[in-house]
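Write out the 3D structure for:
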Amino acid sequence: MSVQFEPIVGRYMHLDLFGRPNRIYVEEAGEGTPLLCLHTAGSDGRQYRALMNDARIIGSHRVIAFDMPWHGKSSPPPGWHNEEYQLTSAHYTAMILEVMAALGLDRPILIGCSIGGRIALHLALEHPQSFRAIIGLQAGAHVDPYYDLSFLHRPDVHGGEVAAAIVSGLVGPDAPERERWETLWHYMQGGPGVFKGDLYFYKIDGDIRGRVAEIDTKRCPLFLLSGEYDYSCTPEETLGVAGSIAGSEATIMKGLGHFPMSENPEEFLEYLLPVLEKIDAK
């Protein structure tokens, strides 16, 4: 029998956030420049599995992905059953900085997708000194609501299946079947109301249109990569954000959708590797 182990190592970190204990799951692989990865709304760090298994990346980067509280293998904090989960920009920012400090990350490269891409813009504006560079995937400054969020948390609806159905149209048409369905499976496993709570940040609280032009790329280089088949963060939105931020670089990725690193990692890596090379060269 042939057995193959991946280079990914997972462990749990106990961390107090906002006065409450949290048990947070962290995966990492490789050595070198830290590369901190932020997953999308309603999903978890498994979306970055391809980066952690690519010898070209982990040969010179310590790739790290954590599941936010309430997501994936991370538990909600005690007392979660007495509240409604709702992600805000202030809590999201503080969480990322606390995790970085707990892991001892010194100016990592940050890469985030969707809500991770949106908070990447907040971090580029508010904490540029904390990062070597920031890579925003599907990183729009805002999005207009285009479906009823109440369907994501109702007793007569299977929330996970509805969440997967909603995001299925955001996957690019060229995505391999295996990767497409693994991406959707992550959404099917989401906890009750978690996807809806993340979208509060994405659609309401995290709107950064009025401040995005203030980002100073001389303090922190900013790279925007967006799939061409994405109606949540359209290519036009990405190019509009890039056009308002002096010194930022934007690339529209052919054939890819809203979850490039997860839905079609082989194609995505061809876009990511040149960006990492450029950052490392600086």
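The chain has a mean pLDDT of 95.
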